[in-house]
Write a structure and sequence with these properties.
The complex is a heterodimer. Helices cover 61% and strands 14% of the residues of chain A. Chain A is elongated and about 65 Å long. Chain A has 2 domains: 50 residues; 129 residues, no CATH class. A 5-stranded antiparallel β-sheet of chain A has the order 1-2-3-4-5, sandwiched between helices. Chain A is of the alpha+beta class. The mean pLDDT of chain A is 91. Chain A is built from 8 helices and 5 strands; from the N terminus they run ααααββββααβαα. Chain B is built from 1 helix and 6 strands. Chain B has one domain. The model of chain B has no long low-confidence stretch (mean pLDDT 94). Chain B is α+β, with helices and mostly antiparallel strands. The chains are: A alpha+beta, B alpha+beta. At the A-B interface, helix 3, strand 4 and helix 5 of A face strand 4, strand 5 and strand 6 of B.
Chain lengths: 185, 74
Amino acid sequence: MWTSCTTVLVVPFIAVGVGLAIVKPILIPISLVAFAHAWIIPELYAARGAGVVRPRRRAGREPERRALGLLGDLVDHEGRGLHARTGLVLDRGKLGVWLLGEAGALLVRPGGRRVYCYCVKVPEPDLPSGDRIAHLLLALREDESGFATLANLAFAGAPWRLRRRLPDRTRQALGAAVSEVRQAA
Amino acid sequence: MSRLIRMDQTGHTTLAEWTAEDPASVEAAVSAFRAELEQGYYAVVSEEDGRAEQVRELPLEAPLVILRRPIAGG
């Protein structure tokens, strides 16, 4: 569905670009503008997708520490390390490998060629970061399909397209998730 | 000793601790559990296999029961 929507938006620009260049070569500059639109639209979607795992406002030091302790109890040693480095928690599910942030999640599908960005959060603005992730982690582990249904899809596409829009530390987490998926294949 | 905790703005708060051998502590934990469910919290037990189960009655044998808020699409 997502791919179809993107295709419907992008293909007309490509068609216009190609058509103008063939019919009247003098219009090649306008063709280039059409091609630029065809490129920019998926990039804007990717930027929106990257935004779902952007860090949010922090609570006080002590609440953050306590929340982190609880989150640490829910994941293994490797997961704690990844969270310390990237701010995201990796969880393996039936639909693929998930990366959970404070207000969203990335799902790397089996094969590692496609990533879905979901906007999903706990509507309690004062919760510490670790608790917000723990909420998503527990909800995901309870009902993975329900989690994916409830969450709003912000982007779906190739990991390389998303990677370019992510900060370095988040990019590292995406790389770990893609590796995890490819190893499992 | 089993614990009932609620994720909140303090990180988390321990609402009750109980052992099966102490009926008073069980009763207090069950009351606290029901009160939080009435407030709209979901109760979850994290399992060994990396999954979690939502519960509507306090599982007395579980070492840790976590109360969380419902999530929503952003």
